[in-house]
Design the sequence.
C-alpha cells in the first residue's frame, strides 16, 4: 500500500478476528518500530510482545477492562527506558525523550501493521505498575502504550478531523 494511503485508511479497531498474526509478519512490524528515530539514536524504549491468551486477558484488566486488548491475537507493550538516555540528556532525556522514543516506535509499528493489512488501536489508559508486573519488566522500565494488533472484525468509519486552518499556525 502507498504510504499516504496507509495513513488515510488506518483506523482504530477494537474488534479482531480470531486469526493469529504470523511470526514473520509480527517481526516485520517490530523491525519497523526498530527503525523509528530516537534521541541520539539511543532507542530509549523496550517492546514487550504478548501473544498468550491469559496474559492478554491480564493486560485487558490492567487497561481498565478494555477487553478488546484480549481479543487481539497480539499486543505490543511499549515502555520507556530512561536510563538509556540519562547520561547523554540528563533530566530532559529521562522525562521527555524516552517517552518520545517509545511513542514514535509505537506509531511506526501501528503504520506498519496497517500497511500489512492488520488493524490496531493505541491504548493509553491502563495502570502502569500492573502492566509492568504482567510483562515482567524490571524497575526503571515504564509502560506508555499498549498496541493490540490483529485482523479487523469491524471497519470503523472515518472520524472527522480538524481543518488544517484550525490546527496549523503559521509563524512569520
Sequence:
Amino acid at each position: 500500500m502507498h504510504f499516504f494511503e496507509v495513513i488515510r485508511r488506518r483506523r482504530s479497531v477494537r474488534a479482531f478476528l480470531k486469526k493469529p498474526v504470523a511470526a514473520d509478519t509480527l517481526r516485520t512490524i517490530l523491525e519497523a518500530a526498530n527503525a523509528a528515530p530516537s534521541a541520539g539514536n539511543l532507542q530509549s524504549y523496550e517492546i514487550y510482545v504478548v501473544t498468550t491468551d491469559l496474559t492478554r486477558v491480564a493486560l485487558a484488566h490492567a487497561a481498565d477492562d478494555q477487553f478488546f486488548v484480549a481479543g487481539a491475537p497480539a499486543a505490543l507493550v511499549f515502555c520507556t527506558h530512561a536510563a538509556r538516555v540519562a547520561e547523554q540528556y540528563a533530566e530532559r532525556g529521562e522525562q521527555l525523550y524516552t517517552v518520545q522514543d517509545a511513542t514514535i516506535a509505537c506509531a511506526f509499528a501501528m503504520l506498519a501493521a496497517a500497511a500489512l493489512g492488520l488493524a490496531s488501536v493505541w491504548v493509553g489508559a491502563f495502570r502502569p505498575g500492573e502492566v509492568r508486573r504482567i510483562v515482567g519488566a524490571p524497575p526503571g522500565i515504564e509502560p506508555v502504550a499498549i498496541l493490540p494488533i490483529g485482523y479487523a472484525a469491524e471497519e470503523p468509519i472515518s472520524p472527522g478531523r480538524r481543518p488544517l486552518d484550525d490546527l496549523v499556525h503559521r509563524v512569520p
Remarks:
- DSSP finds seven helices and four strands in the chain.
- The chain has a mean pLDDT of 96.
- The beta strands are 45-50, 74-81, 119-120, 141-150.
- The two ends are 37 Å apart (CA to CA).
